[in-house]
Each structure stands twice: as structure tokens, then as C-alpha cells.
UniProtKB/TrEMBL annotation:
GO terms for cellular component: ATP-binding cassette (ABC) transporter complex, substrate-binding subunit-containing. This is ABC transporter ATP-binding protein. The lineage of its organism: Bacteria, Pseudomonadati, Pseudomonadota, Alphaproteobacteria, Rhodobacterales. One of its GO terms (biological process) is carbohydrate transport. One of its GO terms (molecular function) is ABC-type transporter activity. Gene3D superfamilies: P-loop containing nucleotide triphosphate hydrolases (3.40.50.300).
């Protein structure tokens, strides 16, 4: 089961403070959509509105074209997985996973601990719930732990229980709010791949909130980048990286960060750049891939100081500073530059087709003559 989700002109204020401004987003059935942005930009608030956990101040939420603003969270056919896992500590894993089904399928007296089992006429429903719990636990590989309590599980295992508790309901939409941020770096990478695989297997619509752009970029079909309560750009990971529409997006996406320099400064580094840049001052941004350490006939040279080298195994990150003080980074093959080169001057070459131009407001400028690189990205 899967569903399209539409957010139309959502706004939210807490007192005088406006947290969300006119946010619209159309999420396709079965899509993995991430909401990413710096702390406080409003991601969690938007997700909570979608779940029905907080009312919006304006705008509408619909699923498959039907407004759901009047529905409480339990009636929205949406499951949410939180950063904190939100497991019941006194219940076993089996009971935790089964809770949403027991709430939905069993009458209140039959849900009571102990004596509830004596309530007549519920056996087939209970068997169905037991089987659904086992199926969900198997899907996230925690079946052997079904009789443990959460305290006897690792952080990663608890997160799997929280996922299984969401899966067991077969919701049309999964919402996840920073589900991996309490895990260590290594486990985050493993769980990232598992959540992406789970999404493919379930085919459901996922809306995933994270402040970690790498997480968003590696898992999602599309990523909505939020800044100051607005969606600045919603696009595929490749488009966001290679063709950001706004300087804030360009800076937020990509690691190491995109380098930026004013066109005036770049021209004073090498006057040869003047013909490819607009006459009015602009911000020129370029990814590490557009900083080359080998001379090439059609690229212009600038001189830089090598500040630092980071060894990443097969490749090096080479951090450089131009005469103007601008910092940039290049990638190089391991062994290409000896560590003793730190502090020394060297030449780097900048292919103009790698430039992205932004105006004084940070909006991307159309520059057809230097756009090839972005389109190829
Ligand atoms: N219940 C509330 N009352 C008042 N202000 C709130 C409330 N909930 C959120 N805010 C404010 O709304 C803004 C957005 O919060 P939100 O939690 O949505 O951000 P976020 O992007 O998810 O951040 P983070 O990544 O840090 O979780 C913040 O400035 C926050 O202080």
C-alpha cells in the first residue's frame, strides 16, 4: 500500500515566531522523500503536522487527494519512527511490536495484561497479530530477540524494534524523524542501507527527516532542502549537488563544502576569468571536482598555498588558500602530493565550466556558456 502526500501552503507559528512559511510539497506514491536542513529550520514541525501531532496555522495536508486535516494521528494510516525509539520499557519486543495491532484489532478488555487473554472470541485475531509481529520482526532481523525487553537491546536493535512496530501496521506512509541519530557512525551507515532496502521491499511512501545531508543524499529519491521555515529546493540528490538553485543549498549539500569567491576577487587572481564572468559582481562557486592540480590548456591558473592534506585512503583532500584568503579544496589520488608539501605554494587550475554563479541574494544565475559541468553532474 502506498500513497501520494500533498502539503499545500502550510504555515505554522508559535506565538509571534513563524516557523513554517507557505510550505508546499507533493510527494509521489512510493517515493523516498527526505526533508533536510540545518537545526531549527522546521523539518520536525512539518513532519509532526503531517502526522497530525501538531496543528498547522494554515494550509492543508492531503493523502491521495483527500484532505486529512480533521483526522487524528491514529486515523491517518501513517506510522512514525522517532529518534528516541519511544519503546515501552516494561514490554517485551514482541509486545512492543504488537501494540499498534492490539490497539486496533482487540476490544479494550482483551488488551488488559494477563486477564485479557481470558476474554472470549479473540483467538484468531490474536493468532493473526502474533504472526504479523513475527513477520515484521523477521523483516528487520530481530526475530531472535522477541522475548527480550528494550533494556537488553543495543541502540541499533531498539531502532529495528521501532521500525518493526511501524511496519506491522502496513501504513500507507512512513514518517521518520532522525531515526539514526542516536547510533554510532558505523551503525548509522549500515542502518542507512537497511532502511533504503526496506523502502524498496515495502514500496511504501517514506518521508524522512534528517539534518545529515549525506544520509539524505544516499537514501532518497528526492530531497527537499529547508532553510528558515521554507523549502528552498526539492530535487534528486544528483540535481541538488550539480545544479543547486540557491547558494544556501549549494553550501549545505556536498562534503567538502563548495568553495565560493566573489567574481572581482577571482578576476584579480587571474584577469583571464573576466571574459567568462558577468560584468556585475557575482558569487562564483565550484565543487572540489572543479579544482584541478594538473595543468590543462583550457583552464586558468591561480596560485594557492597548500594548508592541509587529509588522507582518505585511495584519495587525498587537499585544502588550499588563494591570495585573497578564499579557501578551496581539491581531490587528488593518494601519493600524488607528499605531506611535506603542506605550507608550500602551488598552482591550481579552475575550469570555468565548473563555475556556478549566484547573485547578491544567493539566487542561481543562468550562465549557459559555463553550464556544461552542472548538467553533466
Ligand atoms: N512547541 C513549540 N513551541 C515553540 N517553539 C517551537 C515548538 N516546536 C518547535 N519550535 C520552534 O520551531 C523551530 C523549528 O523547530 P523544528 O523542531 O521543527 O526544527 P528542526 O529543523 O526539526 O530542527 P532539529 O534538526 O534541531 O530538530 C525552532 O526554532 C523551534 O524552537
Amino acid at each position: 500500500m502506498t500513497a501520494a502526500v500533498q502539503l499545500r501552503n502550510i504555515s505554522k507559528s508559535f506565538g509571534e515566531t513563524q516557523t513554517l512559511r507557505d510550505v508546499s510539497l507533493a510527494i509521489r506514491p512510493g517515493e523516498f522523500m527526505s526533508l533536510v536542513g540545518p537545526s531549527g529550520c522546521g523539518k520536525s514541525t512539518l513532519l509532526r503536522i503531517l502526522a497530525g501531532l501538531a496543528p498547522q496555522s494554515g494550509g492543508t495536508v492531503s493523502i491521495d487527494g483527500t484532505g486529512i486535516d480533521h483526522l487524528p494521528p491514529s486515523a491517518r494510516d501513517i506510522a512514525m519512527v522517532f529518534q528516541s525509539y519511544a519503546l515501552y520499557p516494561h514490554m517485551t519486543v514482541r509486545q512492543n511490536i504488537g501494540t499498534p495491532l492490539r490497539m486496533r484489532r482487540l476490544p479494550a478488555p482483551a488488551r488488559l495484561p494477563g486477564i485479557g487473554r481470558l476474554w472470549p472470541g479473540q483467538r484468531s485475531k490474536r493468532n493473526g497479530i502474533d504472526q504479523a509481529v513475527i513477520d515484521a520482526a523477521r523483516l528487520v532481523e530481530i526475530e531472535p530477540m522477541l522475548d527480550r525487553k528494550p533494556a537488553a537491546l543495543s541502540g541499533g536493535q531498539r531502532q529495528r524494534v521501532a521500525l518493526a512496530r511501524a511496519i506491522v501496521r502496513h501504513p500507507r506512509v512512513f514518517l521518520m524523524d532522525e531515526p539514526l541519530s542516536n547510533l554510532d557512525a558505523r551503525l548509522r551507515v549500515t542502518m542507512r542501507a537497511e532502511i533504503a532496502a526496506l523502502h524498496r521491499r515495502l514500496g511504501a511512501t517514506f518521508v524522512y527527516v534528517t539534518h545529515d545531508q549525506v544520509e539524505a543524499m544516499t537514501m532518497s529519491d528526492r530531497v527537499a532542502v529547508m532553510m528558515d521555515g521554507e523549502i528552498v529546493q526539492c530535487a534528486t540528490p544528483t540535481q541538488l549537488y550539480g545544479n543547486p538553485c540557491d547558494l544556501r543549498v549549494a553550501r549545505f549539500i556536498g562534503s567538502p563544502e563548495i568553495a565560493t569567491i566573489s567574481s572581482d576577487e577571482l578576476i584579480s587572481e587571474n584577469g583571464g576569468f573576466a571574459p567568462v564572468l558577468p560584468r556585475d559582481p557575482v558569487t562564483v562557486a565550484f565543487r572540489p571536482e572543479a579544482v584541478l592540480l594538473n595543468p590543462a590548456a583550457d583552464h586558468l591558473e591561480v596560485s594557492a598555498t597548500l594548508e592541509r592534506i587529509e588522507q582518505l585512503g585511495p584519495e587525498l583532500l587537499v585544502f588550499l588558500r588563494l591570495g585573497s584568503g578564499t579557501r578551496l579544496c581539491a581531490r587528488a589520488a593518494a601519493g600524488r602530493i607528499p605531506p611535506s608539501a603542506e605550507g608550500q605554494s602551488l598552482s591550481v587550475w579552475l575550469p570555468a565550466r565548473g563555475f556556478m554563479l549566484f547573485d547578491a541574494n544567493g539566487s542561481r544565475l543562468d550562465a549557459p556558456h559555463i553550464r556544461e559541468f552542472a548538467d553533466a553532474g
